[in-house]
Write a structure and sequence with these properties.
- By secondary structure, the chain is an all-alpha fold.
- It contains 5 helices and no strands.
- The protein starts with 7 loop residues before the first helix and ends with a helix.
- The model has no long low-confidence stretch (mean pLDDT 89).
Length: 181
């Protein structure tokens, strides 16, 4: 919890200004929406990276299998299988980044509002509910940002592994050309 931030118990004792509470709630919801939009972008990137690495690995394994049939190049096939393995690993890491993680959610479940003392509350109830919502949003934002950081780290690892696969592929092609020449 941020330094100086009120707890729900502290807020219960205050006469909360509904307009201020609504602004705090709206600002928190916008920040949470931004974190959820970032999640969507990461998931889109992960899907794209996954598809690319699976396609590349199939192509590289196919080339390796074709080279196995040529008696002059047979010894170089392992290099293609090695580079293909990097691409499979990169695809796995990018797929792992799309697993379910903890994220905040927009809005509130109706059962929060549909309770005695809330739905039939006095003029202070809306302000208090918005203040509680703003308080809860702090946790939801932190939760979403932590999950986004984990996704970003996994996607970076996938790209690095894929780059290693590209280097191994370059070495595979170089080795094959060297053995032909």
């Amino acid at each position: 919890m941020a330094e100086g931030m009120l707890t729900p118990g502290d807020m219960e004792k205050l006469a909360i200004n509904e307009r201020v509470a609504r602004e705090a709630f709206d600002l928190g919801q916008r920040r949470l929406a931004d974190a959820l939009e970032t999640k969507a972008h990461f998931d889109h990137k992960a899907t794209t990276i996954f598809t690319a690495f699976v396609t590349i690995s199939l192509a590289v394994f196919g080339v390796g299998a074709a080279i196995l049939r040529d008696p002059l190049l047979r010894e170089t096939a392992w290099a293609f299988f090695c580079s293909g393995t990097f691409f499979v690993a990169a695809a796995f890491v990018s797929a792992w980044s799309m697993r379910g993680m903890e994220y905040g959610y927009m809005g509130w479940a109706p059962e929060v509002w549909l309770r005695s003392g809330v739905i039939d509350g006095d003029d202070q109830t809306v302000g208090h509910m918005l203040a509680y919502g703003a308080h809860r949003t702090v946790h939801l934002i932190a939760q979403s940002q932590a999950s986004n950081s984990a996704k970003a780290a996994l996607l970076l690892k996938a790209v690095i592994i894929g780059a290693c696969g590209a280097l191994a592929f370059g070495a595979s092609v170089g080795l094959t050309l060297w053995s032909i020449g």
